[in-house]
TrEMBL record:
Pfam families: Acetyltransf_1
Descriptive protein name: GNAT family N-acetyltransferase
Family annotation (PROSITE patterns): GNAT (PS51186)
Listed InterPro entries: Acyl_CoA_acyltransferase, GNAT_dom
Domain N-acetyltransferase: 4-171
Top-level taxon of the source organism: Bacteria
Length: 257
């Protein structure tokens, strides 16, 4: 029988246990940025739980109160799931991790639990496992984003803003990369975009979103922590290869001629 264990990361054990993502490159800027970000966010109520099967990492979940969330969503007294990942499928481990969040929300008398999904990228959790646990879809946004909620109380639904097109017009046609330190893979994604832009002789500007207020106001998608905008068009909100980034920028340039 498998031995299942849950470990919650804290400021005291993060050095010993480490983060789940990019754990093979602990000296990279992405990993170190994520670690520092987590230490700061633990003070704001963020929870990061790793699941172990027979002492080996099997998955993790990260969630936080909505007022400190990295997702562009509005609501009151909710938890927001940032990330859910399992590398051992077919054993219900994702469900077990979701149940941890739901129970925590009940214990802290939250209105419910929120998650943002998108079927076109692995950078957001899959929708189906949440639907099976009783989450319902309450809003949508461009580029395939879906807002799901599990409610414990008769409270107003959370919601996305509706000014997505306006957000894309704020950068004067310049290639702008908006980022936070929430995901360690963002550094790799940015390097690919910069390399693609250099090959096309396009100057890029990186803008670090340092507060939730900035994220809510400026992010081009509900994902919040990473977005690339060029000529008033969304280039990407997840990692692209250098070739794919070049292709997308060329497509946008043709549209604007």
């Amino acid at each position: 029988m498998d031995n299942i264990e849950f470990i919650e990361l804290t400021t005291e054990n993060i050095e010993e246990i480490g983060c789940y993502c990019l754990r093979s490159k602990t000296k990279s800027t992405g990993y170190q940025g994520k670690k520092g970000w987590l230490i700061d966010q633990f003070r704001q109520g963020l929870t990061y739980i790793q699941m172990l099967e027979n002492e080996k990492l099997a998955g993790f979940i990260e969630y936080t109160p909505i007022e400190h969330s990295s997702r562009v969503v509005y609501g009151e007294n909710y938890y927001v799931i940032h990330c859910l990942w399992v590398n051992i499928t077919g054993k219900g481990y994702a469900t077990h991790l979701i149940e941890k969040v739901i129970q925590d929300a009940k214990d802290h008398k939250k209105n419910g639990v929120i998650v943002v999904t998108n079927p076109t990228t692995s950078w957001t959790p899959s929708k189906e496992v949440f639907i099976k646990k009783g989450f319902v879809e309450v809003d949508q946004a461009p580029y395939g984003f879906e807002l799901l909620v599990y409610k414990m109380e008769d409270a107003p639904n959370p919601y996305f803003p509706n000014d997505w097109e306006e957000r894309l017009t704020r950068y004067n046609n310049q290639l702008t990369i908006l980022r936070t330190k929430q995901c360690p893979y963002i550094d790799i994604a940015i390097d690919n975009v910069i390399e693609a832009a250099t090959k096309l002789d396009i100057k890029a500007e990186i803008q670090l979103l340092q507060s939730r207020e900035e994220l809510l106001r400026l992010s081009p998608t509900p994902y919040g922590v990473y977005g690339v905008v060029y000529k008033n068009q969304l280039i990407s909100y997840h990692r692209l290869t250098v070739h794919s980034a070049m292709k997308r920028m060329r497509e946008v340039s043709v549209l604007k001629i």
